[in-house]
Specification:
Strand content: under 5%
Number of strands: 0
Largest sheet: none
Distance between the termini: 21 Å
């Protein structure tokens, strides 16, 4: 059993070359191989054991190819892509609020009423966005993606906190957000803001696991 494990990891190490996350990748796959060996501890044929490992994880060539391909994706580019998407959400909501309060358009009033009638649903959709953000970073960057996730989260959260401060200090009139700005909605916003990072971190771990 140890022979198959050693052979697999040695080939994987060679194919990974100078990958910056090489040691962490090897450690992760060693853990997965140990799990496979534990499941098939009665198996003695080395060729059959190697086949089980390859069936579950892929060949060392396939694994190394996947990790080396991910180096071509710039973490900074991925980070700013998600920040841009978050800004689009933020800007879209801001423009909708501004237009609703400045123009008496019937269709816009209907859209506003429909959206403000579902505050919890809006918050849940935003939460799903953050989970997908974590998932994509975890899947795309594996072990090295946590720093990318943290930086993306901090930068993306800034417009949200700024809006909250503008509302709290009444720089933006409260009646602009009627009937949304209720005590219940404020508590929901605070709650979802607190759990945003844990949710995105959960998505990150899920994505990292899928990438293995």
């Amino acid at each position: 059993m140890d022979q198959s494990k050693t052979k697999f990891l040695k080939e994987l190490a060679g194919r990974l070359g100078n990958h910056p996350e090489k040691e962490a990748i090897l450690l992760e796959y060693e853990t997965h191989i140990d799990e496979i060996l534990l499941e098939h501890f009665t198996m003695e044929n080395e060729a059959a054991i190697m086949e089980k490992i390859v069936q579950r994880l892929g060949t060392p060539q396939e694994i190394a190819g996947m990790w080396l391909e991910e180096l071509a994706v710039t973490p900074s580019r991925m980070k700013w892509l998600f920040i841009l998407v978050n800004l689009v959400f933020f800007a879209g909501g801001s423009l909708l609020t501004l237009a609703h309060n400045l123009f008496e358009w019937i269709w816009l009033t209907n859209v506003w009423r429909s959206l403000t009638a579902l505050p919890t649903l809006i918050a849940l959709v935003y939460m799903v966005f953050w989970m997908l953000l974590g998932y994509e970073i975890g899947k795309g960057f594996g072990h090295g993606g946590r720093k990318v996730l943290k930086k993306t989260f901090i930068i993306s959260l800034f417009p949200n906190l700024l809006l909250m401060l503008l509302i709290v200090f009444q720089i933006i009139p409260h009646n602009w957000f009627a009937p949304l700005l209720t005590k219940q909605f404020i508590l929901i916003c605070i709650f979802f803001t607190i759990i945003l990072y844990p949710v995105s971190l959960l998505g990150f771990r899920w994505g990292k696991k899928v990438s293995i």
